[in-house]
């Protein structure tokens, strides 16, 4: 079995690089057009990604209020974040809970839905669309809908709970439940994960299942021994995508609670946003330092997953 | 083939360039001819858009040669937009501006002082109601002019039918009376609210604690904006009052859960019959009269605390106005527009704009409640309450200070800290924030 990185590197090594002068006139013309069409994207990346990326790193060592030139502060911002900002730790803790919970929900639920919708059932297209559509609804509209669903007095979810004799929950007023409410809301985007899993499932050759059936494997054994191992590259991709996205959770929390109650839903990016755009004077240097710490956290998580993938991700062939 | 590729590229670039223009609503009079075009940002949305267009058109008529590109921008992210424009060296000529945001912009001189312009045009501060004007001054200079009124924020709209049912004859004057009335008006089964008598955490304008502290005779910060003054007997009494009111509403969690369902603005709690007394501002008059024709209500002043006085009730806090950013392309003409938007009483200007909405004006000579020759029947009551408002100073670090103060109230209401500890911690935290500001900008 090859690892993810191993197979990617081998694939790259297989590409023979050609010198410009060795290219035929036709290939040169194609290359020029290729470059021409990719130019807007390259300019976009340089201007809107690379430049802010580098600038924010430099600004993270300054006091910068936007309207005056930055003032060099060395490691002050980082020192203050780590030693004198209780909301940093609070927001990091909240974000960790969200990352752990929402990634688990999306992976498990997405995989389960993909398995169901990979079966030959009637109205398959309709079911797939139904589960995917919420993912493309604008997040502001979704937030409003979820505010109604999770409303403590008249919300759909509380009505459902009372059908089973359960007490109603003050979702956004009780610090013990507020983050759980956002984890429930995170099921909205399970459709994206589901579609990627579906694509992976459809890439598994039927022959493997046929062979397993001949060997007497039941449904659960086929799932454990054939489906899951062959789906590990897709699981790996989904875990990475979802972890990176979950660490940056912001919009729905900004709209729905603003971090309340008792800062129970104050996430890392909300904390960063407040320092940059809500407080006066604006603290762009401090926010940049917060952003770089988040970048490092995500980087470490990603690196751990990539390195560990050698042990648990399997590729066919 | 190359021509087609070039064409596609050009189309892409043009589409990308045009995209940002679709994010705002811009109105420019096509008939206006002039050498100067002012860029004007405001946040008067909804049914105020045509009113503002009329004001701008009248300005253009009165100032030949000056045209206005009138841009309505959403209120959210207003500071983000303004700061970005200033940093990019391309600010609007005139912008609507929150008085609560003034100290930082003035301290860093990102806006133009208006004193010289005012002197040249013979405009003096005494044309404004004093409490409205004071929030436009920083370090002895005038940086913006007010419109609309920031006063009359702490009006208590109360349902007179509820009062009659509960046998309450007059609106409470003191906190003790208020607690008694709220207990009589609140309805529920002991854990689940059906109606709130009064929510002391929901106050128009300043953060609730600062308003109640003000009504207890204590300013939250010194006049020079350098010393926080909340850790005292008045502060203790204020938090005790808020705690008592929350207990009447079955605790903070139920109160908040109820309130999040109780609606806002056009469908505010008093309209939905979910609250008996609601604190809101003079702007609510329009909502009440448009959406609650059958509601029997009256207007009263906020009750005062044990250390307060009947003459000092709510807090005049913030309010809006108009200013000219540094690096504005046409500062002289920009001043003319600011003046039109804030001091014009005769023409279709600042006074007319408020009269159409029937809102109080910060200009003494303008009766905002006078429309089509008639004064609104509630004008006297509202202006009477506004006269009892005291100015609550706004610090240069107000947005973060507000969060810290709100966190303090939660600490107490959720039972995580004693009142004394919460006050001491918060005073120290906000003081440290202020000290850091003055060290950098003082």
What does this 3D model show about the protein?
The complex is a heterodimer of chains A (317) and B (442). Chain A is an all-alpha fold and 317 residues long. The N and C termini of chain A lie close together (7 Å). In chain A, 70% of the residues lie in helices and 1% in strands. Chain A has a single domain (86-312), classed as MetI-like fold (Orthogonal Bundle). Chain A has helices at residues 4-13, 25-59, 76-84, 86-117, 124-136, 139-149, 156-163, 178-185, 190-202, 206-214, 219-247, 251-256, 268-278, 284-312, and strands at residues 62-63, 71-72. In chain A, strand 1 and strand 2 (71-72) form a beta hairpin. The relative contact order of chain A is 0.14. The mean pLDDT of chain A is 92. With 442 residues, chain B is of the alpha/beta class. Chain B folds into two domains: 19-151 and 318-384, D-Maltodextrin-Binding Protein, domain 2, CATH 3.40.190.10; 155-313 and 397-441, Periplasmic binding protein-like II (D-Maltodextrin-Binding Protein, domain 2, 3-Layer(aba) Sandwich), CATH 3.40.190.10. Helices cover 42% and strands 15% of the residues of chain B. In chain B, the strands form five sheets. Chain B has a six-stranded mixed beta sheet with strand order 1-3-2-4-14-7, with helices on one face. In chain B, strands 9-10-11-8-12 form a five-stranded mixed beta sheet. In chain B, helix 8 (175-185) packs parallel to helix 10 (233-248) and helix 16 runs antiparallel to helix 17. The longest helix of chain B has 23 residues, at 419-441. Mean pLDDT of chain B is 89; it is low at 5-11 and 13-23. At the A-B interface, helix 2 and helix 13 of A face helix 1, helix 3, helix 4, helix 11 and helix 16 of B.
Q: Could you name the key traits of this structure?
A:
heterodimer, A: 317 residues, mainly alpha, MetI-like fold, two-stranded antiparallel sheet, 70% helix, B: 442 residues, alpha/beta, D-Maltodextrin-Binding Protein, domain 2, 2 domains, six-stranded mixed sheet, five-stranded mixed sheet, 17 strands, 42% helix
């Amino acid at each position: 079995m090859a690892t993810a990185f191993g197979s990617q590197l081998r694939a790259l090594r297989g590409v023979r690089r050609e010198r410009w002068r060795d290219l035929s006139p036709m290939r040169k013309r194609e290359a020029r057009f290729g470059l021409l069409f990719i130019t807007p994207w390259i300019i976009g990346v340089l201007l809107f990604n690379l430049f802010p990326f580098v600038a924010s790193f430099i600004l993270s060592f300054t006091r910068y209020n936007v309207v005056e030139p930055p003032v060099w502060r060395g490691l002050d911002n980082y020192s203050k974040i780590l030693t004198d900002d209780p909301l940093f730790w609070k927001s990091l803790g909240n974000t960790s809970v969200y990352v752990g919970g929402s990634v688990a929900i999306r992976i498990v639920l997405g995989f389960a839905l993909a398995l169901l919708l990979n079966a030959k059932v009637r109205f398959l297209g309709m079911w797939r669309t139904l589960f995917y559509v919420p993912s493309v609804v604008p997040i502001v509209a979704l937030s409003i809908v979820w505010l109604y669903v999770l409303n403590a007095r008249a919300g759909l979810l509380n009505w459902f709970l009372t059908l089973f004799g359960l007490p109603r929950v003050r979702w956004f007023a009780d610090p013990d439940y507020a983050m759980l409410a956002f984890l429930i809301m995170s099921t909205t985007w399970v459709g994206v994960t589901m579609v990627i899993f579906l694509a992976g499932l459809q890439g598994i050759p039927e022959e493997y299942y046929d062979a397993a059936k001949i060997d007497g494997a039941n449904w659960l054994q086929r799932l454990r021994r054939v489906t899951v191992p062959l789906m590990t590259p897709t699981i790996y991709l989904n875990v990475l995508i979802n972890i990176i996205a979950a660490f940056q959770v912001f919009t729905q929390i900004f709209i729905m609670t603003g971090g309340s109650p008792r800062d129970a839903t104050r996430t890392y990016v909300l904390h960063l946003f407040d320092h940059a755009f809500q407080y006066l004077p604006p603290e762009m240097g401090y926010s940049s330092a917060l952003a770089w710490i988040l970048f490092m956290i995500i980087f470490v998580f990603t690196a751990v997953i990539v390195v560990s993938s050698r042990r648990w991700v399997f590729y066919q062939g | 083939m190359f021509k087609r590729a070039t064409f596609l590229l050009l189309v892409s670039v043009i589409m990308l360039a045009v995209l940002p223009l679709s994010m705002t609503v811009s109105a420019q009079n096509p008939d206006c001819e002039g050498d100067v075009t002012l860029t004007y940002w405001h946040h008067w949305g909804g049914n105020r858009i045509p009113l503002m267009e009329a004001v701008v058109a009248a300005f253009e008529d009165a100032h030949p040669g000056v045209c206005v590109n009138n841009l309505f921008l959403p209120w959210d992210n207003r500071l983000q937009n303004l700061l970005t424009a200033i940093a990019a060296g391309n600010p609007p000529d005139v912008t609507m501006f929150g008085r609560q945001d003034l100290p930082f912009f003035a301290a860093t001189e990102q806006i133009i002082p208006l004193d010289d312009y005012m002197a040249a045009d013979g405009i003096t501060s005494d044309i404004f109601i004093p409490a409205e004007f004071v929030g436009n001054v920083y370090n002895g200079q005038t940086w913006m002019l007010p419109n609309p009124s920031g006063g009359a924020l702490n009006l208590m709209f109360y349902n007179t039918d509820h009062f009659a049912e509960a046998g309450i004859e007059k609106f409470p004057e003191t906190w003790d009376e208020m607690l008694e009335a709220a207990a009589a008006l609140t309805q529920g089964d002991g854990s689940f609210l059906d109606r709130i008598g009064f929510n002391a955490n929901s106050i128009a304008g300043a953060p609730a604690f600062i308003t109640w502290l003000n009504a207890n005779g204590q300013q939250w910060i010194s006049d020079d904006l350098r010393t926080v003054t909340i850790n005292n007997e008045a502060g203790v009494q204020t938090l005790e009052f808020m705690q008592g009111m929350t207990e009447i509403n079955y605790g903070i969690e139920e109160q908040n859960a109820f309130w999040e369902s109780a609606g806002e603005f056009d469908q505010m709690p008093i309209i939905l019959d979910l609250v008996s007394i609601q604190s809101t501002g003079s702007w609510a008059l329009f909502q009440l009269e448009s959406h609650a024709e059958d509601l029997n209500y009256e207007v009263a002043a906020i009750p005062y605390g044990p250390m307060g006085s009947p003459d000092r009730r709510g807090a005049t806090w913030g309010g809006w106005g108009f200013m000219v950013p540094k690096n504005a392309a046409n500062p002289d003409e920009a001043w003319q527009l600011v003046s039109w938007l804030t001091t014009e009483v005769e023409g279709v200007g600042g006074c007319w704009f408020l009269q159409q909405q029937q809102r109080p004006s910060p200009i003494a000579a303008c009766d905002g409640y006078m429309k089509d020759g008639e004064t609104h029947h509630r004008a006297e009551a509202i202006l009477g309450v506004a006269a009892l408002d005291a100015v609550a100073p706004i610090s240069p670090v107000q947005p973060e200070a507000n969060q810290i103060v709100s966190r303090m109230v939660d600490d107490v209401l959720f039972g995580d800290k004693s009142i004394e500890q919460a006050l001491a911690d918060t005073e120290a935290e906000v003081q440290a924030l202020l000290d850091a500001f003055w060290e950098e900008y003082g």
